[in-house]
Specification:
Length: 200
């Protein structure tokens, strides 16, 4: 029986945050969330990696609770391990309470933006990517502005709506649907502290 997971799951423990921040591991979680319960071989095909290269990451994610392992027999063959996420959607609580957690959030954010940049590059390599109109498929925008408290609340509501739209569609591979990834970053503009040269 397939594991059906519909409840949200929040990554919050320091161990999970450090594990997911390791390069390539969130990509594994994203792929499993997209295709549903799968074997490592299916995951490898989805990601375009060798399955041997994925075993270490899958084990680390399973051991800290970011992947759930079930075993079942498929078509009379030997028992096989299937992996699924512990909930849908999977989200991360940004805890900045300690230097270690701040470093983990920074590393995860950097990895997410790099992954988004690679997705844009792949889309730009295709002549089939739609770049205008109501079914536009590609965005890469950077804007700065002054937001009030009410504006910030509206921005967060819209972000949550976007996440909800793409999360609701994640379990369906029906005809007419294509896989998409969404990467965004919102941060307050903080001026860097000016370095004061030492007195000679």
């Amino acid at each position: 029986m397939e594991l059906q997971v519909t409840r949200p799951f929040v990554v919050s423990s320091p161990e999970q945050l450090e594990t997911i921040a390791s390069p390539g591991r969130e990509e594994v979680i994203d792929a499993v969330a997209l295709i549903g319960p799968c074997r490592v071989s299916e995951l490898a095909r989805q990601l375009g990696h060798s399955r041997h290269a994925l075993y270490y990451h899958v084990k680390a994610l399973r051991d800290c609770g970011l992947l759930v392992e079930t075993r079942r027999t498929v078509a009379g063959a030997r028992e096989t391990c299937f992996y699924d996420v512990p909930g849908r959607p999977v989200s991360v609580r940004f805890d900045l309470s300690t230097p270690a957690r701040r470093r983990a959030v920074t590393a995860l954010s950097r990895a997410r933006l790099q992954k988004g940049s690679k997705g844009v590059a792949r889309a730009c390599a295709s002549h089939a990517t739609v770049t205008e109109g109501p079914r536009r498929e590609l965005w890469a925008t950077h804007v700065k502005g002054w937001l009030s408290g009410a504006d910030l609340e509206e921005m967060n509501r819209l972000f949550l709506c976007l996440v909800d739209v793409i999360s609701r569609a994640s379990n369906s591979q029906s005809t007419g649907r294509k896989a998409f990834e969404l990467t965004f970053a919102l941060s307050p503009v903080r001026r860097k502290a000016r370095r004061v040269p030492p007195n000679n």
